[in-house]
Amino acid sequence: MKPKPPYLSLGILAALVLLSLVGPLLYGQDPYTFHKGLILHPPSPEHLMGTDRLGRDLLARIMQGGRVSLLIGVGSAVIASLIGLIMGVSAGYFRGWWDKGFVVIVDLFLTFPTFFLLLTLVSYIPASSLILIIVISITGWMGTARLIRSESYRIASQPFIKVLRLARVPTRVVIFKYFLPLLAPIFFVSFTFGVSGAILAESGLSYLGLGITPPEMSWGSILSDGKAMMEIAWWVSFFPGLMIFLVTFSLIQISDWLQERANRREMAQS
């Protein structure tokens, strides 16, 4: 019996993407406009998620911030997954000094806890969306690379790969035609985890004041703005936190489904 696709998680994720990309074009409120008479106004029909400490519409800010959070999440995951794929395949296929170099580089990166390494890099570089994408990518490719390397070792040991090598089939043909299709499930699982991990990393940095800076906004920076007023205006922190939770939860559910499908396919082939 095939695992059922996580329709609820896919629907939530699609709704949040549409909310972030299309919502600002349709919603009438401006995320930057101050309203002196509506400071910390609770959720109402006029302002569905309330307003913040400067009277700005929170829903408009969450829509705008969602673009930045999703951009950082997807951009970081794409770059980190590609780095992990290249490094892992190279180590697993070529072995020898490629593999030894891979182990040294990964051990060097893993010497420091990832989040503290992230904090160290961001502390010396002015934060922006591009900088955060690059920094999170640099600190987030190791897990994917280790999984890809392990699976590449297994694939390289298969008899048909040895036959292809003896037949002097070009390396690029072996990798692109035989390795990458077999590695695709692991790659996509790592990618989905990478997106949620990058969004959480950006949110953590913004919450600590080291992430996105005004006038740019993200879910993490909006959440950080509300931490000083949680007792009197719960909605300022609740709604951006809810967005982060929903995206992370949906991506984890999708990752679990992809992993289960990959495991079933591997069991069927063995």
Automatic annotation (TrEMBL):
The chain crosses the membrane at residues 68-94, 101-124, 130-148, 178-201, 232-254. One of its GO terms (cellular component) is plasma membrane. It is found in: Cell membrane. The keyword Transport applies. It is a multi-pass membrane protein. InterPro entries: BP-dependent_transpt_permease, MetI-like, MetI-like_sf. GO terms for biological process: transmembrane transport. SUPFAM superfamilies: MetI-like. Residues 66-255 form the ABC transmembrane type-1 domain. CDD domains: TM_PBP2. Keywords: Cell membrane, Membrane, Transmembrane, Transmembrane helix, Transport. Pfam families: BPD_transp_1. Its main location: membrane. Belongs to the binding-protein-dependent transport system permease family. PANTHER family: D,D-DIPEPTIDE TRANSPORT SYSTEM PERMEASE PROTEIN DDPC-RELATED, OLIGOPEPTIDE TRANSPORT SYSTEM PERMEASE PROTEIN APPC. This is Binding-protein-dependent transport systems inner membrane component. It comes from Nitratifractor salsuginis (strain DSM 16511 / JCM 12458 / E9I37-1).
